[in-house]
Amino acid sequence: MAYVTMTEGKKNLTDVKLGENVSVRDFVNFYGCEIGDNTKIGTFVEIQKGVKIGKNCKISSHTFICEGVEIGEGVCVGHNVSFINDRLPSAVNRDGSLKGEKDWKLEKTAVHDFASIGTSATILCGITIGAGAVVGAGAVVTKDVPKNAVVVGNPAKIIRYKVQEGEGQNG
């Protein structure tokens, strides 16, 4: 049985798969997802169905992780980070009817081991953030980020690669 640190009443977690020693703060909305051992989830986070988060991760407060996102091990996600899974969002179909589950295309996003995503970054759909990569605060990531790259800006651009000792788990 998983040990979960939870404050105040949480909804039924029968559809959430939690690893050992997962810490979940107040006001988290999560359903149909998997969270690995020793991961910490901050307050006011939403994690939707089908999301997989590896072990030893830190997901900071006010973050939105939508369906189609997979996060590797040892990943740090800063405060107020938003993931997107619909490239062309709209409320209605061409005929004016309200869009439903079948009326859009899910585009998956992968964040590889030991990557770090800064506060208020926006991660668009259909991309991969490589192992050990760093996404700067406020960046808007519109395309793949290579392993150990450091990206900043809108749209995010590579400013350098991590090469100094201690800059990452993946050399």
Structural class: mainly beta
Q: Give the averaged pLDDT, no decimals.
A: 90
Report the total helices: 0
- By CATH, the topology is UDP N-Acetylglucosamine Acyltransferase, domain 1
The CATH architecture comes to 3 Solenoid
The H-level CATH homologous superfamily, spelled out, is Hexapeptide repeat proteins
Low-confidence runs of at least 5 consecutive residues: 1-11
CATH class: Mainly Beta
Helix content: under 10%
Outline of the structure:
The chain has strands at residues 4-6, 17-18, 22-24, 29-30, 34-35, 40-41, 46-47, 52-53, 58-59, 64-65, 69-71, 76-77, 82-83, 109-111, 116-117, 122-123, 128-129, 134-135, 140-141, 149-152, 157-161. The chain is an all-beta fold and 171 residues long.
Walk me through the structure.
The protein has about 170 residues and is mostly beta strands. It has one domain (about 1-5, about 15-85, about 105-160): Hexapeptide repeat proteins (UDP N-Acetylglucosamine Acyltransferase, domain 1, 3 Solenoid), CATH 2.160.10. The protein has strands at about 5, 15-20, 20-25, 30, 35, 40, 45, 50-55, 60, 65, 70, 75, 80-85, 110, 115, 120-125, 130, 135, 140, 150, 155-160. A nine-stranded mixed β-sheet has the order 1-3-6-9-12-15-18-20-21, with no helix packed on it. A six-stranded parallel β-sheet has the order 2-5-8-11-14-17, with no helix packed on it. A three-stranded parallel β-sheet has the order 4-7-10, with no helix packed on it. A hairpin with a 4-residue loop joins strand 20 and strand 21 (about 155-160). It is globular and about 55 Å long. About 35% of the residues are buried. Mean pLDDT is about 90; it is low at about 1-10.
